[in-house]
Amino acid sequence: MHTKWTDEELGIIEAKAELYTPKQIASILKKHGYFRTPIAIATKLWALGYSTSPFLDNYSSAEIARVLCVHSTTVSGWVRRRAAASCQ
């Protein structure tokens, strides 16, 4: 069964399309009371002409840590050190 996308849902996914993964967008939609699977979101984004791969700098520390097999606090430390170095 397919549920029609509401204007609010479409507005949310279009606003988040290039910043978040379909899984992250599903979580955001859930907070607004909508329940869509990441696959449904990816399909809709593709149909709307958006990429389903966000820009690299919008991943969470936990996601990066999981991929690199390090603790999320390690990644957070890297970010803080990089931010401090760029301010000097």
Detailed description of the structure:
- The protein has about 90 residues and is mainly α.
- It has 2 domains: about 40 residues; about 30 residues, no CATH class.
- It is built from 5 helices and no strands.
- The N and C termini lie far apart (about 55 Å).
- The mean pLDDT is about 85.
Quick tags:
ATPase_terminase-su_N, elongated, mainly alpha, Terminase ATPase subunit N-terminal domain-containing protein, 5 helices
Q: What would a concise description of this structure say?
A:
The protein has 88 residues and is an all-alpha fold. It has five helices and no strands.
The whole-angstrom Rg is: 16 Å
| Strand fraction | under 5%
Biggest β-sheet description: none
Count of structural domains: 2
Low-confidence stretches: none
Question: What's the helix-strand series?
Answer: HHHHH
User: Which term fits the overall shape?
Assistant: elongated
- The rounded distance between the terminal residues' Cα atoms is 56 Å
Helix fraction, binned, reads 55-70%
Number of helices: 5
Which structural class fits the helix and strand makeup? mainly alpha
Oligomer: single chain
Mean pLDDT: 85
DSSP strand count:
0
